[in-house]
Each structure stands twice: as C-alpha cells, then as structure tokens.
Amino acid sequence: MRTAETRPAASARTTTAAVDPARWPDVAQPPKASAGRTAITAAVLRRALERLPLRVRFADGSWLGRGGPVLEIHDAQAFHGRIGSRGTVGFGESYMAGEWDAPDLVAVLTVLAGNMDRLVPAPLQRLRALWAPRRPASQRNTPDGARNNISRHYDLSNDLFALFLDDTLTYSAALFRGFPATWDLLAAAQHRKIDRLLDLAGVEEGTRVLEIGTGWGELAIRAAARGARVTSITLSGEQRDLALRRIAAAGLGDRVSVELRDYREARGTYDAVVSVEMIEAVGAEFWPHYFRTLEARLAPGGRAAVQAITMPHERMLASRTTFTWIAKYVFPGGQLPSVEAVAETVRDHTGLRLARREALGAHYAETLRLWRERFTGRADEVDALGFDETFRRMWTFYLAYSEAGFRSGYLDVQQYLLTKENHAR
Q1: Which residues, at least 6 apart from 345, have a Cβ–Cβ distance to it below 8 Å?
Q2: In what order do the strands lie in the sheet with 270-276?
Q3: Binning pLDDT at 50, 70 and 90, where does residue 134 land?
Q4: How confident is the model at residue 362 (pLDDT cuts 50, 70, 90)?
Q5: Are residues 122 and 143 in the same domain?
Q6: What's the whole-model pTM score?
Q7: How many domains does the chain have?
Q8: Which of 84, 103, 131 is the last residue of a domain?
Q9: Is residue 338 part of a domain?
C-alpha cells in the first residue's frame, strides 16, 4: 500500500538532459507511451513491488513495499512509461537516464532477480510474445554476425577492461578459497580457476591444446608454461593484439599461436579443448555447431573443459526470443543456456560424454563485486578514456545486474568436463 513517507522526500530529478542523444538516442528521449499504458504499467508494478522486501520511495514523498533495500524513483512518469513500452530494456534505460537509483543497487536487483516470476502476472507472462521486444535478426551469430557482436563488446578498449580487471586480465569467474574475497586475492583466484580447467582437460607437457575464446591470453600462457602447445582462437582484434604481446613478454611465443577466426573455422586435431565463458556468445541455434566443433577437434580419448554461465531452464525457454537490455547494450547476440540445454545438446548432437559438472555461482558473485567496486572507484579514469556518464551508469548497472543474478541464484556458472571415446582401446 502506498502511504506518506515521514522522512524528507527524495528530490525529483532526471538526468536525461545530460545524455548525448546522438550516442544514446533511446536513453535521451523516453518513448511516447500512451497515458493508459503507463497507468496500467504503474498499477501492475505497484502491485508487484508492494509485496516484495523492498522500500520504494517516490519523489513526492510516498513509498511502498514491505521494507528492505531502497529503490528511489525520481521520475515515476518516465520510469513507468519506459517499462510499459520496452519492458526490462526500458527498466535498464531508465537507470541509465537517472530516472531511478538505489543506495545499494546490487541489493535491490538481487530482490528483483530472486522474484522474477512474481514481477509479471501470469496472464501477462502468457502474452509475452505480444509485449516483449523480439531479438533482432541482425544479432544472429552467423560468422559475420558473431564478428560484429564480439567486436561491439570486446573491442571497446583494452584500457577500459584493464581499469577493473586484475593483472591477469581474466574476464570470467574466479575460484576463491573462501568468502568474502578481497582484491589482492583475485589474481590468485583466477589462476586457481584456470589451473582447475587445465587439470580437467589433462593439459601437461606436450599436450596439444585448442582454446576457443582467447580473452587476453592468460589461460594460453599458463597452458604453455606447463609445456603444452596452444592454438587459441578469437574474434576480437583488440584482444588478440594484447594477448600476443603478453605471450611474447612471457617468453612463450614459440608455444602459442593466436588466430583471428570463428570457432567454426577451427582446424586440426587436439588432445584438449578449453573454452571459458564463450558459449554465451554462440546463440541457441548454433549450440549444436559449437559442441560438434569440440567433438570434431578432439582426438580420440581427448578431453574438453568448458566453463559456462547458465540460467533456469524455464526462464531460458520463456525468454529465448526476447530482446533484453543486456543484448541491446552489453552483449549483442548473447544468450545463456541452461544446464538442461547443455546436456540435451551434447547428448543429441554429439558423441561426447558429459563426465563432470560443478557449479561455482557464489564465486562469480564475489568476482563481479570486486570488478564493480574497482570500476566505480575509477570513474575519473573511465572518463579520461572518453566514456561518458551514461556509459558509466550502463556499465555499473551491467556489473550490478550480473552480480545480483548470481547472488539470487537466478544465474550460475558451471565447469564441465566432456570426453571423447577412444575406440582404439
């Protein structure tokens, strides 16, 4: 129930005037939603939010919710209009525009992620195809589409990623010994994660390794340091250039090659294949191609170690054609599989055996917290690289949104071991 707030009201404000309309057209100008649609959205949201462990404050001094972390809505008209017109895309754009905020953004988003099924009434969920924006055909992960999608995220700026990643430049879940984690332990935790994957894949002296998704080269460096011969492939030119420099600086250039190519263009036979959080960029229609590539590139008796972010199967099925805020602004073409989808694809499209799976979701939440704190603490340096305030709010929301997904259990991350039978034995 909405009542008067006894404390001083949050001041009404919007920051859309500060948003560059040329760079952020959909953020600078709220969509023109009908008064009726906005009113219906406000009523639906009010009904959902007043049942959650949140405290929602409006600029007029009113509030609703059952208590908990505070969500401050500065411009209710724009907030409801964006969500009514664009769903979760509008929710994220409203944050980018400064129309709402939260003293503890992760806490608010964790509550929302943990109650995802309750936010939209069941009748509206059944009509999702009518109101949810559809994934655009331009983001399909065809060979050309995948190059464009990858470039839009990973070719932003190596210097930007270096501002919030540790010295290993590893952009995936770390593996800690305990919680809470601290920044000084992150590099060791990334090495622990990499070493576990290399152990799963049986990488040792003389192993022929294919890495699908180079990143900035840390896994290739550690595999080569074991005496392996590594072929690493990537679609990011920025990442490849820096990875090659780091590999050369480590004195391992004779053991590692980094190729700018699509996973579907990989050739050769390898004892081990390692792929860390790359399947999220493949797209559901191409998951069979991805796993068949692993099988085709493995020698008989070979092992593949795959790290993959996953989401609940029912939510994956419900949202598989939906255009999300993350897909629009952060990971174009991105799509998370479920544990069930991975198992079914491996079973139905390959002869690989899924020999092992282990979940590490809590470790990703801590990894993201450290990245987010580092990023927000270096705002001036982000600005100096030419990224504006809207970008910083976007990136902060992305990191917090992701962290909340893992803290709520809505998201998880798995390490898989896949094996190829050796018929000669």
Answers
A1: 287, 288, 291, 337
A2: 256-260, 229-234, 208-212, 270-276, 298-310, 412-419, 353-359
A3: confident
A4: very high
A5: no
A6: 0.92
A7: 2
A8: 131
A9: yes
